[in-house]
Amino acid sequence: MKYNLIADAGSTKTEWALLPPGEEPPVRFVTDGLNAMIADRKSVSENFSAAAEKTGTALEKYGTGAEIGTIYYYGAGCATPEICSRIGDALLSAFGATSAQAESDLLGAARSLLGDEAGVACILGTGSNSCLYDGRQIVANVPSLGFILGDEGSGSALGRRLINATFKGHLPAYLEKELTERHGLSLPEILHNVYRSTSPNRFLASLVPIIREHTGDPSIHSMVLDEFGAFFSNNISRYKGVRALPISFTGGVAANFSDILEEAAKTQGYILGHIAATPMEGLISFHRAHSSN
Questions:
Q1: Does residue 292 fall inside a structural domain?
Q2: pTM listed for this prediction
Q3: Of 17, 105, 112, 273, whose Cβ has the fewest other Cβ atoms within 10 Å?
Q4: Domain check: are 84 and 112 in the same one?
Q5: In Å, how far are 110, 120, 134, 200 from 131, measured between CA atoms?
Q6: Strand order in the sheet with 128-133
């Protein structure tokens, strides 16, 4: 018997779900992340080999003859047909599956959040992205431009704003003191992590828990609200007919700041749809519904 496999692959971790037939709960596991745009062939092969080994262990519970049917892979960095084709070939090689479909993480978000309905799907995590989805495919995408040029509303953007506000005197004195002393935000360390490290965006996003802890302070609340407002203004407003459509979100930032995100959406006149911390639950529902059609 063949079992389909879903992957939601981020740069930090990849969530997998092996789907048995019927309503039996999927077997879920996590492996290292992968950014398909920057990973070389060796890294891709090693990553998928490790995942295939875990999948093989999961298949053992179903007995002899259990094998992988179709792999639905939604990955960070799957930005071009060439990259998607390369990842699909690597999946087939590693898993011995019947077929493999490699797609962008943004399409994964859209299918997870909206299913077969039209709307706008957004990712607010370490980075940010959005798309207009017609219930079948992405029909428009305002490019995120990454954490240097864009990524409004993301964890990296919020971290950047917190650092700016802290060291340029935009926060109350007591809060500035708490951030620099209790949380250890020293200027030399920050400058090193932003300008000398290999993952400055992850460092900036690592400050999100501090921001969440202090959203009761008016200055922090206002900062987050303004950043989400910039996300709507610079990205969502560019989609035709968007004010008649639900705006749905996935990602840790969206889930952890859902109250302020809802406030920002209402302020700018948007319909807030579904918010999910990760896409996997929605992807499981989507592919189970479509496998029965």
A1: no
A2: 0.86
A3: 273
A4: no
A5: 8, 6, 10, 25
A6: 138-140, 128-133, 119-124, 246-250, 271-276
Number of domains in the chain: 2
CB 185 within 8 A of CB 159: no
Confidence of residue 292 (pLDDT cuts 50, 70, 90): low
H or E stretch including 48? helix 41-59
CATH of the domain at 84: 3.30.420.40
Question: Does one domain contain both 121 and 247?
Answer: yes
The domain of 7 spans: 2-97
pLDDT of residue 155: 92
User: What pLDDT does 293 receive?
Assistant: 43
Q: Residue 36 — pLDDT band, cuts 50, 70, 90?
A: confident
Does 221 fall in a domain?
Answer: yes
Percent of the chain with pLDDT over 90: 62
**What is the DSSP pairing of strand 67-75 with strand 99-104?**
parallel
Given 68, 97, 126, which residue is the final one in a domain? Answer: 97
Residue range 263-268: average pLDDT? 94
Query: Residue 290 domain-assigned?
Result: no
Among 97, 132, 154, give the residue marking a domain's end.
97
Return all residues near 251 (Cβ < 8 A) that are at least 6 apart.
122, 123, 124, 125, 128, 277, 278
Same domain for 87 and 126, yes or no, is no
Helix (H, G, I), strand (E, B) or coil at 183: coil
Closest CA to 73 of 115, 111, 40: 111
